[in-house]
């Protein structure tokens, strides 16, 4: 909190958000069930729930209205975020691209793959961008609990394809799924890479690690590792 604003202690971001909402009489809707978690990290996730949390915390709309009656000299210094609220731009972007949340998780996930951070920043960006669609399709294919949504409808022709059916038939465990996604990410043939040989070196280490895992975890399933790798070219063709 940066001080007391409109009756409660809050940060500058929430102060500006509440003031804009009241002054412009903005109306929001919640895309979920009006119970989104709103905290410092996720405060821009849902404007409706954020505004409700401001009201529940005790922020007073009258305080914003009274502020307008002050002489100009007494007006608070205008925060650039009030004049051009980049958080609103983010919300618009999320409305336009329903995969924004997945994209952020995708970047965080990639950064935790062993050796990925040793690559140049340029090559990291190239790999993430190139693998995005394939990883999105795999995520939906593996998540059987995902409710029907515009995204799943768009992806339906991919999810019901022979390629995805064959991948599901292997019944990958969580470790194998993660390794398969990492192999897709670490594609040395991605266009625009500065150091493809470094990417190839990391991928080969991953191949060796996954093969050892398959042999030790599923000793009775001969050729399991090869079956997984055989799906990669076909998966890339639909991505």
Structure description:
- Residues 1-66 form the Nuclear receptor domain.
- The chain has helices at 12-23, 47-57, 61-68, 80-83, 86-96, 100-111, 121-142, 150-159, 162-169, 174-185, 196-217, 224-230, 232-238, and strands spanning 3-5, 8-10.
- It is an all-alpha fold and 239 residues long.
- It folds into 2 domains: 3-63, Erythroid Transcription Factor GATA-1, subunit A (Erythroid Transcription Factor GATA-1, Chain A, 2-Layer Sandwich), CATH 3.30.50; 86-237, Retinoid X Receptor, CATH 1.10.565.
- A hairpin with a 2-residue loop joins strand 1 and strand 2 (8-10).
- Helix 7 (121-142) crosses helix 10 (174-185).
- It is elongated.
Could you spell the SSE succession in H and E letters? EEHHHHHHHHHHHHH
CATH architecture of the largest domain: Orthogonal Bundle
The proportion of residues in beta strands is under 5%
Query: How many DSSP-defined strands?
Result: 2
Molecular shape? elongated
By CATH, the topology of the largest domain is Retinoid X Receptor
Mean pLDDT: 77
CATH class of the largest domain: Mainly Alpha
- Per CATH, the superfamily of the largest domain is Retinoid X Receptor
Largest sheet: 2 strands, antiparallel
Structural class: mainly alpha
Overall number of structural domains: 2
Taking the alpha carbons of the first and last residues, their distance comes to 45 Å
Helical amount among residues, as a percent range? Answer: 55-70%
**Count of separate DSSP helical elements:** 13
Question: Measured on Cα atoms, how large is the radius of gyration?
Answer: 24 Å
């Amino acid at each position: 909190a940066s001080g007391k604003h409109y009756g409660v202690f809050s940060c500058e971001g929430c102060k500006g958000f509440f003031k804009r909402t009241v002054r412009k009489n903005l109306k929001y809707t919640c895309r979920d069930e009006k119970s989104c978690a709103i905290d410092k990290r996720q405060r821009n996730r849902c404007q409706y729930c954020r505004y409700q949390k401001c009201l529940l915390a005790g922020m007073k709309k009258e305080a914003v209205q009274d502020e307008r009656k002050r002489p100009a000299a007494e007006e608070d210094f205008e925060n650039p975020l009030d004049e051009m609220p980049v958080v609103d731009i983010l919300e618009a972007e999320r409305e336009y691209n329903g995969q924004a949340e997945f994209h952020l998780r995708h970047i965080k996930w990639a950064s935790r793959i062993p050796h990925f951070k040793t690559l140049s920043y340029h090559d990291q960006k190239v790999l993430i961008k190139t693998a995005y669609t394939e990883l999105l399709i795999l995520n939906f294919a593996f998540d059987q609990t995902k409710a029907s949504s515009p995204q799943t409808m768009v992806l339906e022709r991919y999810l019901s394809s022979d390629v995805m059916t064959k991948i599901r038939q292997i019944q990958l465990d969580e470790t194998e799924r993660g390794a398969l996604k990492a192999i897709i990410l670490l594609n040395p043939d991605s266009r625009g890479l500065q150091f493809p040989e470094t990417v190839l070196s990391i991928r080969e280490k991953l191949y060796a690690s996954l093969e050892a895992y398959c042999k030790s975890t599923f000793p009775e399933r001969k050729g399991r590792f090869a079956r997984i790798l055989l799906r990669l070219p076909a998966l890339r063709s639909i991505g």
